[in-house]
Description:
This protein has 121 residues and is mainly α. It folds into two domains: 1-75, Multidrug-efflux Transporter Regulator, Chain: A, Domain 2 (Orthogonal Bundle), CATH 1.10.1660.10; 77-121. The chain is 63% helix and 3% strand. The chain is built from five helices and two strands; from the N terminus they run H-H-E-E-H-H-H. It has a two-stranded antiparallel sheet. The radius of gyration is 19 Å and the shape is flat.
Amino acid sequence: MRIGxxxxxxxxxxxxxxxxxxxxxxxxxxxxxxxxxxxEATVERVGQIRGLLDAGVPVKIIKQILPCLDGPxxxxxxxxxxxxxxxxxxxxxxxxxxAECVLKNRDAIAAYLDRVSxxxx
DNA sequence: ATTCTTACA
DNA sequence: TGTAAGTA
Length: 121
């Protein structure tokens, strides 16, 4: 499929999809006209990439664990590289801190909503 | 009409 | 990310 359709189906702007391709996160064939031709599987792949990106994982890291991404949310290394494990551990800690922050704000918003609904409804 | 590349702020 | 130019 072309970039426009992929953009619609993934919610990621065409510009970002080109960006992902530049960084080797996704691959595309080229039509005779020069247009990118993405495999069907790219839709799910972009979904995984966005999940990682939203979680705060830098493209640099995603690039390394991408070939190990399979089913939704599964990562595994047949041959663990000590350097990479250190990076992943650091990444895990950042994600933990971020998750705590997100939960805190979620609770704040939830509490506000409860108050308002009690006032309005 | 859609996409492509490049580049600056 | 918004934007613009000049193509195919």
